[in-house]
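Person: I have long wanted to understand how a fold can be written as tokens. Underneath my words sits a plain record pairing an amino acid chain with its backbone structure tokens. Those tokens are not coordinates but codes from a learned vocabulary of shapes. I should like you to check that the lines agree and flag anything odd. The protein I mean follows directly.
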Amino acid sequence: MNIFKVKNNKIPGTNYKEVKKIALDIFIISKLKTKRRPYIRSIYFNKEKIFFDYFWPHLFDKNYNDKIRRLKYFNCAVELMEKSRNKPDICQSLENKNEIFYRFYGETINKEIFCVQIKQNKKTGQKYFMSCFSKK
């Protein structure tokens, strides 16, 4: 397991409203760069785009405490996806053979290990940011 050390720390806050506001401010920066779907470019995937289409709907399916826990790692996850060159864990989807999942691991300044999951559609080659969570 290759761990990438990010320079950001987790988003501070105990309240969902506080954490969501900071995470949305970070998201809006990448959203303003394009007129279409928001994305970031990843060094590991040779500057290919990673879209945010699945992250927000996936997050809203979670319960209140889980939303807060996952959103706190949002800025760390964005930095990891942009700058990491470390090899991720790769696994084939059991439900759909046209999907591949990549799991990147990162470490915050406070030595907390987290995971970022990216889904790739084999037919189109597009990559989607699915989730970020602590590795506990």
